[in-house]
Design goal:
single chain, about 180 residues, mainly alpha, two-stranded antiparallel ribbon, 6 helices, about 55% helix, elongated
Amino acid sequence: MIFVNPKAFQKAEKRLTRLQRQLSRKVKGSNRYKKQKLRISKGHRRIANIRKDATHKATTFICKNHAVIALEDLNTSGMLKNHKLAGAVSDANFSEFRRQVEYKVIRYGGTVVKVDRFYPSSKTCSNCGEIREISLRERVYVCQKCQHTADRDLNASQNLENYARLAKPCLDVKG
């Protein structure tokens, strides 16, 4: 199953920009200034609620329906330093997703397998195991050896599934 990122901030960014521009024209300390700050904070709260709701729904579904869950140990702080990726990474809510999966796995009695960040999940063919370099802009993985073609993310998830079947669980709680 594919869970679509709601991209809450990206969708609300234009409105927030307009609200903040309106705030800059108000006199600091006035009642209209306070009301405008409240509108901006409601906009940010809405974004946070959309993110939280989508994350809870996805993690609950995953933890209820899967006994073994493989999570990559992504370097999110490093991704945030890349100005082209930072907005999308922070909007995706990676760390909160991981936190919720880890506590919900305990609740629903499953296992989490943490995959090393250097494991080449998107560079490996899920069909034959051939490893090849692939740029981030290539969205379809085509194996040079066996001609297997798959979506880059689907191929990586299949590799993570294979890894989880062979690896020892790091968080194993029943009940």
